[in-house]
Specification:
The structure is a single chain. The chain is of the alpha/beta class. The protein has three domains: about 170 residues, 3-Layer(aba) Sandwich (Rossmann fold); about 30 residues, no CATH class; about 45 residues, no CATH class. About 35% of the residues lie in helices and about 15% in strands. It is built from ten helices and eight strands. A six-stranded parallel beta sheet has the order 3-2-4-5-1-6. The protein has a two-stranded antiparallel sheet with strand order 7-8. The protein is globular, with a radius of gyration of 21 Å.
C-alpha cells in the first residue's frame, strides 16, 4: 500500500516508508524504527496513523513529545506513578478495558527517553490488561526514536544502585522483555530537513562525536557574541536550563506593549509540575 495523502505537500517519500508501513499493517510483529534527525520519523508516524486500518494508540514519554505527535503520555495512558516502576504499581484498569481489548498496535515515540523500568511497566501492564501472558500482551508495539538523541533522565545514584544491578542499564532495550523478543529493525536514511551535502556531513560528525578542527572553524563562523537578547533581532535563543529560558521569555513578554491575558491550566491526574507542557498560569500577549 502506498501513501498518497496525510503527507506534507511536495514531500517525495522513498520506498522505505512504504516498506515499513506494509510491515506495520500486515504483521503483528514489533519493530524499532530509527534514523537521524530530519529523516522523517515523525512524518512516517503521522502517515501511518492516517492510513492504517488498525486501531492504534500513540504514546510518548513527555508531554511535549506527546503533543508533537498528537498522542498521550505513557504515564497518563497507563496510570503509572512518577517514581521508578515496579510490578506492584501496575493494576488492571477496568475503565479502559474496551480500549485495551480493541487495541491492535501501540506506537511509542521518542523511545530513546524511555527508561528500562518504564518499558518493563508498559509490557507488564499490557499483559495484565489483555489477560495474555505473551510479550506486550499480544499487542503489536512499534518504537520510534534515535538512540543518539535524548537519553533517559536518570540520576547517577539510580543508575548505579538500581538500573545497572536490575537491568544492566537504563535504556528501554535493557528491559526484560527484549530477552524474549527481537523487534524488526528499520533505519530511515534519506534526510529531508537539509539539502546541503557538506552541512549534512558536518551534522553527522557532530552526531557521532567525530568533529574535526575544520568543522569547529566553520561552525564558529556562525557565532555572534554580540547578539544578546535584542528583541528586534529575531534569532532563536537556546539555553541549557528551563529557568534561563523562562527568564528570557518573561522579560520579552514584559517588553510587549499589549494587553496581557492569563490562562489557568486544568490538570487531570497527578503529574509533577516540571512535566506540564506549559506554565500552570500561562500569560500571553499579542505581538
Amino acid at each position: 500500500m502506498e501513501f498518497n495523502n496525510g503527507i506534507p505537500e511536495g514531500l517525495e517519500l522513498d520506498k522505505g516508508f512504504n516498506r515499513i508501513f506494509d510491515f506495520i499493517e500486515n504483521t503483528n510483529e514489533c519493530a524499532f524504527i530509527t534514523g537521524k534527525a530530519g529523516t522523517g520519523k515523525s512524518t512516517l508516524l503521522q502517515c501511518a496513523r492516517a492510513k492504517t486500518a488498525k486501531k492504534i494508540a500513540v504514546l510518548a514519554p513527555t508531554g511535549i513529545a506527546a503533543l508533537n505527535v498528537g498522542g498521550q503520555t505513557i504515564h497518563s495512558f497507563f496510570g503509572f506513578p512518577w517514581h521508578l516502576i515496579e510490578k506492584a504499581d501496575i493494576r488492571k484498569r477496568p475503565k479502559k478495558s474496551d480500549l485495551f481489548r480493541n487495541l491492535d498496535t501501540l506506537i511509542i515515540d521518542e523511545v530513546s527517553m524511555v527508561r528500562a523500568d518504564l518499558m518493563n511497566g508498559i509490557e507488564y501492564a499490557l499483559r495484565v490488561n489483555m489477560d495474555n501472558d505473551i510479550p506486550f500482551g499480544g499487542i503489536q508495539t512499534i518504537f520510534f526514536g534515535d538512540m543518539r538523541q535524548l537519553p533517559p533522565v536518570v540520576k547517577e545514584k539510580e543508575l548505579n544502585q538500581y538500573f545497572e544491578p536490575k537491568y544492566g542499564g537504563c535504556y528501554f532495550f535493557n528491559a526484560n522483555v527484549f530477552n524474549k523478543i527481537k523487534p524488526k529493525y528499520f533505519e530511515l536514511t534519506k534526510i529531508y530537513r537539509q539539502t546541503d551535502k557538506n552541512f549534512l556531513e558536518l551534522l553527522n560528525r557532530v552526531r557521532c562525536n567525530e568533529v574535526t578542527q575544520e568543522d569547529l572553524e566553520l561552525l564558529n563562523q556562525r557565532v555572534d557574541i554580540a547578539a544578546g537578547e535584542d528583541r528586534l533581532n529575531p534569532h532563536l535563543i537556546l539555553t541549557p536550563t528551563n529557568r534561563l529560558a523562562g527568564g528570557i521569555n518573561e522579560r520579552r513578554l514584559a517588553e510587549l506593549d499589549a494587553k496581557e491575558y492569563t490562562y489557568q491550566a486544568i490538570i487531570k491526574g497527578e503529574f509533577p509540575r516540571d512535566a506540564y507542557p506549559t506554565a500552570y498560569h500561562l500569560k500571553l500577549k499579542k505581538g
